[in-house]
Sequence to fold (61 residues):
Amino acid sequence: MRLTPPLAVVIALLVWTAVLGIVGMFLAIPPLTVILRTLLAGDERTRWLAVLMSDDETETA
Fold:
């Protein structure tokens, strides 16, 4: 099972809380962050961001 790295969790909490308020805090980690990482991995120009959000250091996305 792959987990989201701690820094990505903190950043996601801050961003989604600012955008959606307290509801964003509860939605931040599982659905929104995973969707964002998947979307970033789909484009060659943003794949490096998806790799940064990943816990696998050898991932080439």
The chain has a mean pLDDT of 78.
